[in-house]
DNA sequence: AAAAACCTCACCCGATTGTGGTATATATCA
DNA sequence: TGATATATACCACAATCGGGTGAGGTTTTT
């Protein structure tokens, strides 16, 4: 198995050095660098090209969340593992939205650190239950809007809406479904009434947001 | 602190009874029932109204995923903790989409079981790193499409698009951003050129699909 | 058999939008 | 200082769309 290359960004000197020695002292892991801030973030990453970045959330200058964004923008393959002293859900949640792959508390044991890094490297996402829950809830809301209002759309109406959200005009839709322009318009009128909207944009917006059709 | 009421659905008799005694034997926890299948699921839940349901994924008759759907439909407040023998990502992932709040492997220690139940009850979502990663990836894709094509939209153009996807007409947008109808139209022309579209619906569709703005 | 949904098509009118111009002011950049 | 990007604004014409109305047909339900 290849060596897992890790780069550390952590302002606390003691922890930074401890982690450096921990990682270098663990079989299968190498620490490609340990820095107190993110000022030369991209340059340092370009030089070392690590597999995993261990990133402190609270840092002077560029903070951890901004750093994650930058990293994922320029090196999408690098996995970022956040670490933090506090169990600050919001911050961690933002970090995850920015592209982080997991996070651990600084109170984690050395063995736990290694475990988490390994997990991230192997495609996992270590995180505590409360963060996981927040992600889950937003996720579940995005996947299935639960009992989305039933607008009682007929099959034909749904078919037309599907075409509409593709950006087609009434004329093109008529063509696509083998019908007349006027028929499509009639259906649209009925759709508008059912969705309580009064323009095609509004309809498309509603359909895409509420995952109708 | 209140007693945490747990109901178990698990076809393996040995495990079911072990869990029953484990939970009843742990301070702060009560087992409100332990059943080998989900045939009378809703009736049993209605009777016991547990805080947490421990649900096996693989079961004869109604399987765990269907069961979760039913539970969340009728008792959205009940937290469902899935358990499974295999580390079957897809199944667990489906369970989570169906509304489960976490999951554990059956190889988990008794202490781990109790810990997970407590975590779920307290609003957490225990899960392994690999599941968390799958959720995260889908989640991040829904939140930020990573490096979506950059259309070089100006701030004003983005602002107008934001209004447009709300279903507003050009006139209303002009009003909202304190500008003229004609100005909005000019911006729209530029937007169309940049997005390579030629109708407002197409623009809205593209914006919502690619998470621009 | 009557009623209710659903799909179909057409015409009118006024409002909105698409397209192609032109033009000024500002700010930033080279 | 000239070039570029951005925001602003207006005009005209053709095309499309929203709203209203009416009216055939089928299928399913009652």
Automatic annotation (TrEMBL), chains A, B:
Gene3D superfamilies: 3.40.50.2300. CDD domains: LuxR_C_like (cd06170), REC_NarL-like (cd17535). Residues 5-121 form the Response regulatory domain. PROSITE patterns: HTH_LUXR_2, RESPONSE_REGULATORY. Pfam families: GerE, Response_reg. Coiled coil: none annotated. InterPro entries: CheY-like_superfamily, NreC/VraR/RcsB-like_REC, Sig_transdc_resp-reg_C-effctor, Sig_transdc_resp-reg_receiver, Tscrpt_reg_LuxR_C, WalR-like. This is Response regulator. It comes from Limnovirga soli.
